[in-house]
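Posting this for the archive.
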Amino acid sequence: MCKHWAKIQYTEPDRYDVSNTSFTALWDKGYSTLITDLNTILKFPDAQANSNYKGIALTLRSWTFLLLTDAYGNIPYKEAGQKVTPAYNTQKEVYTGLLEDLKQAQSLLNPANGSVTGDLAYKGDILKWKKLVNSLRLRIALRISDKEPVLAKQATIDATSDAGGLISDNSETFQFVYTSSPQTKSSFGLV
């Protein structure tokens, strides 16, 4: 089964016609907003922060870096958000670092560590976050399987044997569901 989505207006993405603006938006938003904000959460002292917030932040930061390296190849990773002109890392270094980051995120996520508020994707369900972490680890394993088969095999074993499991149905999909706002309302109700 597969899902298809097409638009009538602004059809460029449907035709894989990526404009320079949309291609650079990932870079601009990824580094100037997402990674910077997520690094702020990760810097909170352990005594001050619920480890689930740090686990979620590390997961989201890893996902952002994954999108960036998939789109651009070599990217600033280790020094991102720490220096004005960070050094670039090879894609191999990024993927390897992301596997370590996701392993750490998995260890930080624990339902017994307290609840999480403000989670618009999973409504604070830490078990779903753990499944997302393992699914991202598996995605990276697939990305590196031709170039780094030994590391890919170990990452696959780690992701599939982890007690957190993998995303296995649509109710576990990581997605942001927009809430109602003045922009989504019409005189006839919700659009």
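Helices lie at 20-42, 51-72, 91-108, 126-144, 149-161. The first helix runs from residue 20 to 42.
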